[in-house]
Structures are given as structure tokens and as C-alpha cells.
Amino acid sequence: MKRLIVSLFLTISFIACFSQEFKARVSVNTQKLQGADKTPFTALEQELNSFVNERKWTNYNFKSEEKIECNIQLSVEEIVSAGKYNARLLVQLSRPVFNSSYLSSLFAFQDNGVSFTYTLNQPLDYDNNSFQHPLTAIVGFYLNLFLGLTFDSFSQSGGTPYYSQCQTILNYSQANSVGWDPKEKKNRYWLIENISNPSNQVIRDFYYKYHRLGLDIMHKDIDGALDNILQALEELKQFNQSKSGVMMFSLIFTAKSDELVNVFSGASEEKRHQAYELLKQMDPLNESKYSKLTK
């Protein structure tokens, strides 16, 4: 993993090649489909694994040990009609920390608005610039979001090209499938709106400062790393005070509440108290977790 940080993201000098980017665990869950033929879903799981892990998603070089780790679980909830299904998609993205074996959770989300068609041996067509299939559009959207968040965490605003691709997928999918409507709450529209809106730049900056200027330097300067994380949290708090209700703000704590407790658990009493005061204000639902920092 050291090579990932040193040769790939920190230098931001990539070599174009044909090595795939993702090391994804992709699964299809059909527990709610009692009595249904599971054969198509076994094939779908294999197709989705190939779609995610064997396709080239960027122009950059990712060696096998540098691939981005993520989890994608499609939980099929209902058979609407023959070959048509409603489902949930659970997605989670991790990111390595420099000079360690630790993986930091970057993003976790449950997408409840997935509707798709599939029949056995149906190809999962995809195109960056035009709608081909509702399921590949959704998965392609999340993979580009994963790329954007990962690049943002290693280079300030490094994920911009991938958010642009998410916007393209949003634009061509809105008239063709569900989960893209701005009238709905907490869907794909608001994910990409939040992360690409210039007025929310603090959120993108947080991913960089927390990971690159925080976790990545803890092996050599714990106090400096914690100071940088506290500063990033303070900026996030000020942002939330001026603009509350931003979906991506709350998702930071969905991914990181446990990690934040662990990060500050060995800090000085002063830093633990600072972290507690910031975190309980921004994420009151998890105040009981953060209270451990005061003991």
C-alpha cells in the first residue's frame, strides 16, 4: 500500500495503462424472494463483478496492490413483473492510510431507489455518455463517485473529473429510471449536487485535510495530525452552522463516527475534549459514542 500513496496519489503523476481500478466485493442478495428461481441472480452477480472489476474506469495506472477497495451489495426486494425488480443498493468505500495496514472508511450509503430489469444472460451494457441500462448507470455513478472521493482524499479537489462524469450519468438517467429526481430526498441527485456544489467546498476540503494532512502523517507526527483533523472538524462545524441539512455532511459521520473516537482515544485530555465538543455538536445522534472521549 505504500506504493499507492507514494507513486500514485501523492505525486499525482500517473502512467496511462489498462489495469483496472477497483477491488470490489460485489454481491446480490435475494433473501426476500422466497420461492423464486435464483439462477438469474447468480448470473447477475457474476456479471456485476465483471462489470465493476474488469472494466477500465480511468486513464491511470493502478497496480494490483493499489486498487480501490469497496463493497457493493444489491438487495433485491421485490419482483414487480417478469424480469423487473425493485432493490436497495448498499455501497461502502475504503481508503488506505499511509505507512499502515489500516483502511479508513470514506463513504457508506444505502440507496433505496433502485429499479431495474434483468433476464438470464442479458448483457449489462454501459456507456459513459448515454443511457444503456438502469443498473449499469447506477453502479457506474457510484464507481465514479468512489473515484472522486478517493482522489479528493489524496489531492485537494482531485476528484473533479469523476464528479463531472457522475453529473453526466445523472443527466442522461433522469428520464429513464428512478432515484435521480431532485424532488426526492437523499438520493443520487443530492449526492452529486452536494459534493459538486461550490458552496459546499468545505466538505471536499475535509476529505483531503482529514486523510492526507491527518491520518497519513500520524506515523510521524501524531500531534500535528490531530491538530489538522481538529482544524478540519472546526471548519466543518462552521460550515454546518451556516448551511445545515446538507446530505453529504451527515454521511461523513455515517462513515466515520467510530473511527473518530478511535483516532482521538489516545490523544491528550485537551484534544479529546476539543474533539468531543465539536463532534457532539455536529453529530448529536452519536453523542454517546463521543462521550467516551471525556472518560
Structural class: alpha+beta
Number of helices, counting only DSSP H or I runs of 4 residues or more: 10
Number of domains: 2
- Kindly state the mean pLDDT as a whole number? 93
Total beta strands: 4
Strand arrangement across the biggest beta sheet: 1-2-3-4
Largest sheet at a glance?
Answer: 4 strands, mixed
Helix content: 40-55%
Uncertain regions spanning at least 5 consecutive residues: 2-18
Which word captures the global form? globular
What does this structure look like?
This protein is an alpha+beta fold. It folds into two domains: 2-194, no CATH class; 205-294. It contains ten helices and four strands; from the N terminus they run H-E-H-E-E-E-H-H-H-H-H-H-H-H. A four-stranded mixed β-sheet has the order 1-2-3-4. Strand 3 and strand 4 (103-117) form a beta hairpin. Helix 3 (134-154) packs across helix 6 (201-211) and helix 7 runs parallel beside helix 9. Residues 2-18 have low confidence and may be disordered.
What is the fold's blueprint, element by element?
Elements (H helix, E strand, L loop, with lengths): L1 H8 L12 E8 L9 H16 L13 E14 L2 E13 L6 E15 L16 H21 L5 H14 L14 H9 L4 H11 L10 H21 L4 H18 L4 H14 L4 H4 L5
Parallel strand pairs: 1-2
Antiparallel strand pairs: 2-3, 3-4
Quick description:
With 295 residues, this protein is an alpha+beta fold.
Task: Provide key terms for this protein.
295 residues; alpha+beta; 2 domains; four-stranded mixed sheet; 10 helices; 17% strand; disordered N terminus
